[in-house]
Specification:
By secondary structure, the protein is of the alpha/beta class. Helix content is 17%, strand content 37%. The chain is globular, with a radius of gyration of 15 Å.
Length: 125
């Protein structure tokens, strides 16, 4: 059996790594955990939430792996309502309304990063 212990990072395609770093660190409060030369003139960039967990690798587009996609990434929050209001105030492209929160589905909403990648913020259970 493989010795897999956790999800370490998830790749998110971005058109401009510097702009993506600014969005994820400045707007979402992530930390920059890696920004190193990689391959021939490229960079390996990772950001991670302040509470730990899996990092996001902000990678250049390749082939069909282009920005503007549903990422399937769910970011956990203690207060999605407050996050929704704050991101809206900052001009982030967020869903108009929150979903769930009825006792069966946790409170959640989707938002888009600068490249149109869809991510979810969902209430901690």
């Amino acid at each position: 059996m493989p010795q897999i212990t956790q999800v370490g990072r998830v790749m998110v395609p971005v058109a401009d790594q510097d702009a993506a770093i600014a969005f994820y660190t400045g707007t979402l409060g992530f930390s920059l955990v890696a920004d190193v030369p990689f391959g021939e003139g490229e960079r390996w960039v990772e950001v991670a939430p302040s509470g730990g967990g899996s990092a996001l690798s902000l990678v250049p587009p390749r082939g069909e792996y282009q920005p503007g996609r549903m990422t399937g990434i769910a970011l956990v929050s203690r207060d999605p309502r407050a996050d929704h209001a704050e991101l809206q105030e900052k001009g982030v492209d967020v869903d108009a309304e929150l979903m769930g929160g009825d006792g069966t589905v946790p409170l959640l909403f989707f938002f888009r990063d600068l490249d149109g990648n869809h991510l979810m913020i969902v209430e901690a259970q």
